[in-house]
Amino acid sequence: MIAISATDKKLTTSMDIRFGRAPYFLLTDGETSRFVSNPFCNEESDIGPRLVQFLKEKEVTRIVTGEVGPKAKAKLDELKIQIIMLSEDKISLQHVLKKMNLLR
Questions:
Q1: pLDDT digits over 17-76, tens only?
Q2: How far is Cα 72 from Cα 49, in angstroms, rounded to an integer?
Q3: At 45, phi and psi to the nearest 5?
Q4: Structural domains of the chain, count
Q5: Three-state SS for 78?
Q6: What is the CATH classification number for the domain harbouring 13?
Q7: What is the DSSP string of 38-55?
Q8: What is the spatial distance between Cα 16 and Cα 24, in angstroms, rounded to a whole number?
Q9: Residue 75 backbone dihedrals phi, psi, to 5 degrees
């Protein structure tokens, strides 16, 4: 399962470059897709590690986002979740899916 940080719950929306503060994540396996809300985006501290654990429980094995902090990166490494960082600003979720050959 792949998680892509998202600014809204639509495929036409932009990928959110802020991993921990992204309000939503698009979860997809190439066959089915769904959006989940980030339960930690309004928290004050330790967002990254808790969010990584939350996504692991959703069977996520790869995350696509723009920026990841050091605590989140450590947790990703610990749980063996691959991180794919895209530096493009305002890239749509559809475009990300096409880049990953998950959308034709």
A1: 999 999 999 999 988 999 999 999 888 888 999 999 999 999 999 999 999 999 999 999
A2: 5
A3: -145, 165
A4: 1
A5: helix
A6: 3.30.420.130
A7: -TTTT-SS-HHHHHHHHH
A8: 9
A9: -70, -40
Is residue 64 a contact partner of residue 86, using CB atoms and an 8 Å limit? yes
Domain-embedded: residue 104: no
What sign does the dihedral 14-19-24-26 (CA atoms) show? positive
Domain that includes residue 51, residue range: 2-99
Distance CA 81, CA 84 (A): 10
Q: Are strands 24-28 and 82-85 parallel, antiparallel or unpaired?
A: unpaired
What's the pLDDT tens digit per position in 51-68?
999 999 999 999 999 999
Backbone angles phi, psi at 93, to 5 degrees: -60, -40
Instruction: For residue 68, give both structure tokens.
Output: 């990841």
Residue 62 forms part of a structural domain: yes
**Contacts of 36 by beta carbon, 8 Å cutoff, 6+ apart:** 24, 25, 27, 58
Q: 47 phi and psi, to 5 degrees?
A: -70, -50
Retrieve residue 10's tokens: 């639509």
